[in-house]
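This follows on from our talk about sequence and fold. Can you supply me with one protein entry, sequence and fold together? Could you add the entry underneath, on a fresh line?
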Amino acid sequence: MRLPRRSPSAATSIPYRLKAASTGSSGFLAGLEVLRTLHDAGTRTKASLELVNWMNEEGSRFRPAMMGSRVAGGAFPLASALAFTDDSGISVAQALKDSGQAGPLTPAPRDWSAWLELHIEQGPVMEATGAEIGVVVGTMHARYFQLTVTVEPSHVGPTEMNRRHDSLAAAAEVILAVERIGRSAEPYRRASASWIENIPNARGNVPHITRLYCDVRHSQAEQAIAMEASLRQALSDIATRRDVRIDTAPYATFGPIMFNPTLGALLRRKAADRQLFTGDMIAAAGHDSVLMAPLVPSAMLFVPSVAGITHNPKEYSTKEQVAHGAQVLLDAVLELAGV
């Protein structure tokens, strides 16, 4: 990072705190590099800076996603979050204790005056357009569901096909319906069925309980709601035709939100100062900033993902791409926090 060395100066006491990065290795390490750079240069900002690494942004083990920021944002109490369990019945509280990460502090209101997050794009748009910095102006609206298909247990041998009610076969139709809804209006919508549990999952049994998780997303909330309606109609049709029971339990939503336009303009200006080409972006994935944006002026910046590959061992952003993002993050922090 390019930062002229400054003599330490007394910090001015003003009611201003700046959060400067988030979860994800690139975002958190970029924020850490901002703080290290300021420290190494002997720079004292007028506003205090805080680096946050939220828990469980992805929701891979515990649901819902973005759990840490949801608690901080007041979406649900800490006690409720600690009681959530994974697929093996282990609670968040127990997992934190087992990993040595359980702490004594409870969430308290933060007095942040601005919030910035750097993240990799996780998509191909920036690479295709040549954008070096993506300024995230808003997010999609996402609606998540747990679906449970239930039928009577039966044996694969003696049970004739015309008497058989197969929860897994019905779930296969559900998955294809979800895909069809998502494909119907690309690139503006998404729909995915990404997790499945089959019971008893035994070779000699016709499956009688199948659970899956799915979501629908669109940049416009009313379109996402319409997608949900299409999904529910498809579920009703499948349940009737196959004589199965399909229960639908919504368990999370996020977005859409618009990020602070003043902070977005600041990121564009700082990128232009470094002769970096920018592009405005809509985030299709969930991010902790979605929970923070209603509470504090917030902005996100993306750096490119090579070939748009994400959630894959091949996911990659070059050192130069990450460095560009970290430099713009530092420049924005310096202006916001004051020196």
